[in-house]
User: Which sequence fits this backbone?
């Protein structure tokens, strides 16, 4: 890797499976199956797909935040820092702990787990800063917290509140603000807008955009909501059954979706002025513990061919840095 790499995070043949004990029999759930990503500096990178397709497991694996029964089975997660590339799984626990929040930050689903429910937000800031920046006085820490809240356009009164006194949307914005506090190079956000109404969602999306623009860092955003991806991400991957099935610039994916599953995801979005129901993909995603043969989408696909049931299609480039895994594409069929 050259010293001016445009990438901040790459994965090579990444596999992370849940290994479960089912009445004495080992059961394997392929949550992340042979995933190769090249995520750039200074971009918002989206990971999309229905619930249960492996998005959150992939995010946890990238953040090296996996606990049994989820296990890293194979592959590498390579971060780039100070001209060097390193595999996060080759670091000791202590080295990984030091990276967290300062270099890579993670906003979990629901965000409540970031907070201690019995202390005020200003004390959460204090604990957070004390554990990462030593030698600051109480006043200096409070000043950093005030300045940070002000810069991000959040009301100052949140500092004097307990987490349960904040609305869901405000709590989510404070969680995002905390994740950005130490100016990490990469921020992971897992379904940050779920369960929020549309107006509040807009505030959360704008905050993520402002943070990315201000820090010129990389945000990796997981959500099933294609409307949010259209609004905020620069590039997008679509996951299905633990695999990447399409990747391109977000504009390219929305203007020229190729994989039948991606087309369903886009077609199911509501259109302005359209009161009819939109077509979503027929059926449900398969169980990751019992995947169909060949292309895992074949039981739901109206274009299924014989080969689709027999062989798994590989990702192939379709021009415009647009990658697709489908036998319908000429390279797939050829
Ligand atoms: Fe459909 Fe076959 Fe393409 Fe899978 S590989 S999406 S089954 S056409």
Assistant:
């Amino acid at each position: 890797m050259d010293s001016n790499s445009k990438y901040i995070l790459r994965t090579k043949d990444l596999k992370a499976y849940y290994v479960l004990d089912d009445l004495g029999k080992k059961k394997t759930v392929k949550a992340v199956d042979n995933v190769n990503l090249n995520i750039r500096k200074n971009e918002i990178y989206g990971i999309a797909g229905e619930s249960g397709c492996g998005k959150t497991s992939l995010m946890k694996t990238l953040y090296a935040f996996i606990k049994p029964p989820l296990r890293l089975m194979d592959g590498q997660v390579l971060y780039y820092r100070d001209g060097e590339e390193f595999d996060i799984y080759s670091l000791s626990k202590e080295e990984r702990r030091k990276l967290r929040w300062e270099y890579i930050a993670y906003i979990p689903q629901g965000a409540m787990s970031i907070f201690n429910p019995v202390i005020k937000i200003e004390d959460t800031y204090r604990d957070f800063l004390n554990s990462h920046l030593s030698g600051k006085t109480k006043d200096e820490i409070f000043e950093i917290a005030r300045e940070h809240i002000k810069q991000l356009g959040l009301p100052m009164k949140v500092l004097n509140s307990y987490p349960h006194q904040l609305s869901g949307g405000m709590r989510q914005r404070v969680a995002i603000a905390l994740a950005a506090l130490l100016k990490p190079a990469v921020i992971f956000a897992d379904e940050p807008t779920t369960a929020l109404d549309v107006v509040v969602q807009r505030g959360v999306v704008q905050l993520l955009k402002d943070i990315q623009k201000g820090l010129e860092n990389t945000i990796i955003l997981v959500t099933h909501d294609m409307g949010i991806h259209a609004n905020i991400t620069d590039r997008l991957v679509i996951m299905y059954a633990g695999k990447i099935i399409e990747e391109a610039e977000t504009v390219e994916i929305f203007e020229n979706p190729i994989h039948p599953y991606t087309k369903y995801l886009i077609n199911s979005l509501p259109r302005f002025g359209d009161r009819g129901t939109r077509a979503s993909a027929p059926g449900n995603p398969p169980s990751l513990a019992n995947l169909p043969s060949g292309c895992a989408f074949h039981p739901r696909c109206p274009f299924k061919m014989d080969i689709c049931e027999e062989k798994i299609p590989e990702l192939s480039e379709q021009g415009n840095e647009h990658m697709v895994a489908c036998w319908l594409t000429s390279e797939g069929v050829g």
